[in-house]
Amino acid sequence: MKDRPGIGSYGKSAHLYDLFDQKANIEFFSHYASQTKEVLDIGAGTGRIALPLARRGVKVVCVEPSPVMRREFEIKLSQQPDLSSHIHLVAGKANSFTLGRTFSVAFLSGSFDHLLDDRERISSLVNIARHLDTRGTLVFDVFLGLMGDSPLSPAGTVTVGNKEYRRLVGGKVLPGHKKETQLVLETYEDGGLVERIEETSLVGITNRAGIHRFLAESGFAVREEWGDYDFTRYQEGGSLLIVEAVKRDCAHAMT
Length: 255
Hints:
Layout: E1 2-7, H1 17-20, H2 26-33, E2 38-42, H3 50-55, E3 59-64, H4 67-78, E4 87-91, E5 103-108, H5 118-130, E6 132-143, E7 150-160, E8 163-174, E9 178-189, E10 192-204, H6 208-217, E11 220-226, E12 240-247
Parallel strand pairs: 1-10, 2-3, 2-5, 3-4, 5-6
Antiparallel strand pairs: 6-12, 7-8, 8-9, 9-10, 11-12
């Protein structure tokens, strides 16, 4: 059995990421992408959202900081060469990437939690605003219900052929409004454990009021708030907050 501990965001488990990230949000993001010919996807990961959009004829400029996630994205893209003209993948962080152009729509899916403090959140939103047209739209999700302590617990099982993949997730709150998340991925083949991956990563703890403040300070206004990817309105206390924000006329411009 291989035992692979690691520290960082999916540094050891990027090749298994898509097995368990099955959020039903492709149609949700397609709704916004259909309103334009090209979108900006920040924290694009393995291309789970970008590639389906490209199949629908939308051009997607993808920014991803993690080399291992970009590698998985590139592998998937190499298997679908007909989409290469619609995908442009670049290395970069949300608060520092520079593309030299603007977009009418930007996505930040599954990434806001990885901004660890107020300074990083605001600098990231300011930088995103620089890459949006005036009155451009930013759509992002925040998993408010995952901000507290949680014991390591089963969080999904996927079977592929003679292999079974099991995921366990837990976490503990740390000082400074941060949470250390523990991820364990086990692979069983013909009933026997053949690989166990353990990773820890940090996420930032925030709340709805804080998100509204970060947006206001970064040149955005909240236009809509959803509680699920089916466009259900957000209700206070909900575990998932999806924000549709618009760049104000006086917000940061590309220089």
